[in-house]
Design brief:
alpha/beta; 251 residues; binds adenosine-5'-triphosphate; nucleotide-binding; ATP binding; AAA+_ATPase; 24% strand; P-loop_NTPase; ATP hydrolysis activity; 36% helix
Length: 251
């Protein structure tokens, strides 16, 4: 099976500082790859490089076999790579429904989008995104009335509405309550039934909930890759990241 996304010998340098060196990563359809690692390891930079938010110094990024290295960010998004950043970027004064409507492909301008007659296709796309993120009951509520966690789900719904085949999520549970974190894990697992998903995460309980394959970044390099069990047992990962906080996989 070919990878949906493949990163080969990737290097990103900021004014002489090597944020990523020789990173390789393959992501396949309908899988969840979870990226962990200490602060400053290069996790966000990796996602930034994939969506052309950070310039790649050398190496290759291929999406569905096509080279996308250093393409324009909107071209990468249009090709089918959806990215959610750490902080929710939503219109608080609009409803959940209208926020998702604005995110749909081919939508231009707030007023034009909201007042335009909705096609059945657009309606069903919005409904699908609402369902996948558990927001059907909140569709016509103003985003400002939602909890922090629900706002994060609105943003995930907005990414899904853009029809990506791979979804990149940067710390999707930051600032969430325990229940919201758990619900986010279930949302991500459901998304992975039809999409490839890459998640950056710090919360190891959450990683245990969603992870099939984990990639550990450290000082801009891949330190280890494998199942939660192999990562937890890896002395190098324990030393630089997990510390003595051994995780009980049987829990
Ligand atoms: N635009 C930039 N200019 C200069 N240095 C940068 C830039 N973006 C990131 N860096 C540096 O690159 C390194 C990797 O940062 P990055 O944000 O990718 O780490 P991270 O693993 O996502 O960390 P965290 O868990 O704290 O979010 C850090 O040392 C950071 O200061």
């Amino acid at each position: 099976m070919d990878a949906v996304l493949s990163v080969e010998d990737l290097n990103v340098t900021f004014s002489g500082f090597k944020a990523l060196s020789g990173v390789n990563l393959n992501v396949f359809d309908r899988e969840i790859v979870t990226i962990i690692g200490p602060n400053g390891a290069g996790k966000s930079t990796l996602l930034d490089a994939i969506v052309s938010k950070s310039p790649v110094s050398s190496g290759h990024i291929r999406y569905q076999g096509k080279e996308i290295t250093n393409k324009l960010p909107h071209e990468v998004a249009r090709m089918g790579i959806g990215r959610k950043f750490q902080n929710p970027n939503v219109y608080n004064e609009l409803t959940v429904f209208d926020n998702i409507l604005l995110a749909l492909k081919g939508t231009h301008g707030i007023l034009a989008s909201i007042t335009a007659k909705l096609t059945q296709t657009k309606k069903s796309k919005i409904h699908d995104a609402l369902e996948r993120t558990g927001l059907v009951d909140k569709a016509f509520e103003q985003v400002s009335s939602l909890s922090h966690g629900q706002k994060q789900w609105v943003e995930i719904a907005m990414v899904l509405a853009q029809d990506p085949s791979i979804v990149l999520l940067d710390e999707p549970t930051a600032g969430m309550t325990g229940d919201e974190t758990y619900m986010t894990g279930e949302i991500i697992k459901s998304i992975s039934k039809s999409h490839a998903v890459v998640v950056i995460e710090h919360d190891m309980e959450f990683v245990k909930q969603i992870a099939k394959r984990i990639v550990v970044l450290h000082q801009g390099q891949v330190l280890a890759e494998g199942s939660i069990e192999s990562i937890q047992a890896n002395p190098k990962v324990i030393e630089v990241y997990l510390g003595r906080e051994t995780i009980n996989t049987a829990a």
